[in-house]
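Entry 12.
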Amino acid sequence: MEIKHDSDRHKYYYLNGEALVAKVHKAKPIFMSSDFVEMRFIKALEHDNLNKFMGLSFDGPMFLSCWRYCSRGSLKDIIEAGTTSFDAFFMTALIRDVYGIVVQHSLYCAYRRGEF
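Predicted 3D structure (tokens):
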């Protein structure tokens, strides 16, 4: 991982040799058992276009949500840089992936509402 500097919003760590980024949350929520079930579900998600959720740190002075670090940056970063040209194949794949994420999110929301 290239050198990253901690900020008020993000901290950078290594866990078992794997680079992580941790989002600093201002509030420390109170969790119910259903919240832990949902977090296990999110932790089990694996997809090339998602940064893997690694877990929460709520024992220390800061409440952190930890995610696998992506050295390529976010899609927003890549588009804003404007240095990359996107061909038709990339755009088609991007649209398909975004559509897939929308469908997964909709199904998950329906599941949470008890519609399944």
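Annotation: The radius of gyration is 17 Å. The longest strand covers residues 18-25.
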